[in-house]
Amino acid sequence: MPSNPPSAAASLGVLANFKGNFAGTGFNLIFRPNSGPPTTTTFPNPVAPAPPTPPSENVLELNLTTETLSFSPSLGSVPNRGLEKQNDIFLNGIPYVQAISDVTNIATGKADGTPVPIHFEPGLWMHIPATNSDPFLGESLTRMASIPHGTTINAQCLAPTTSIAGPPTIAPVDITPFPIGGNQQSGGIKFASQTASATNTPRLPQDLSKFIAQGTITQAMLTDPNTVLRNDNVGKTITKTFVFTVSTKAVSPELAGGTANIAFLHGSSAGPNADAAQMSATFWVEIVQYSLVVPPFKPGQAPLKISPRTSHPGALVPTFHVNPPLETTVPKTIVITATQIQYSQVVFLNFAGLTWPHVSVATLVPATLQTVPASAFN
After folding, report:
1. N or C: which terminal CB in the chain sees fewer CB atoms within 10 Å?
2. Which domain of life is it from (predicted)?
3. What string of DSSP letters covers 283-332?
4. Structural domain harbouring 68
């Protein structure tokens, strides 16, 4: 007989923090193929050699981004049936939709351009309980996603069992290409487009001088895109961090996963057009502490909407729904927390004999009103 489902929903583990809607800003860097003639990609300044003659067969596209990440209610209990000595298990998961727009404005050098959608991703985050037979594996996480370009992913990792007190330590990430099957550290091949001050390379935007002046795209960001994440945390009080890295490349035989691409991306014997060969993404789920200044208030008034002071210009913060339980005659400062999600994702795109790291980073905060509990006024 089939196993009865558990009376309560299966555990979500760290995924329980994925609730509601989040929004934020980020930075996207992608080396993409160029073709021609005719080419669909043109540059204000002449590029030598003319594309698509190598090493101008690629375009380094830089995007200052805005993003929404929306989580649906959990699925409850999803049964997976075990064979013989391996008992049934019950997964739980959270559907999500990620949407990213480019807001790069070459006229101002700021992230204030008209939003242009560049990424849409429906998917599932799933929590898998530990098994002690087939396979022998601790509790794990998987992210399953579909990308409109024609790629699907199944990226897995062991679930974090502890949290870090305080803010995260975010290691650098490198976009330097390297030969397919090779090693980035020993075989990386730098391209002129990775130099921010260069103005005649196959890069979009080609001239970064306005962005450099505004501090919105800098050499430090091209060298290490995770600079954006560390800068976003300046001035914030982060009290706790959960960190995990999902990957389509199994870190152990038990952790499977992988990518699948349509024929156009996979290409032919002559080589791929842009084969998404591997993806890894590190997520930092952080608890951020905010101070709210609540003005004088009498019970019966309409609840207040209060946003904390930003830690630095341009920083996004949540808005809180505040309904004090008692009358206050002078402004009162209360301390409240909310979840912040940061991620750094690296996709290995294979074409023209090289692996080209495609890096996306973002910092996201709750986009819906966060309710302040009455206990915050104690």
Report:
1. N
2. Eukaryota
3. EEEEEEEEEEEEPPB-TTSPPEEE-PPPSSTT-----EEE--SS-BSS-E
4. 13-289+339-365
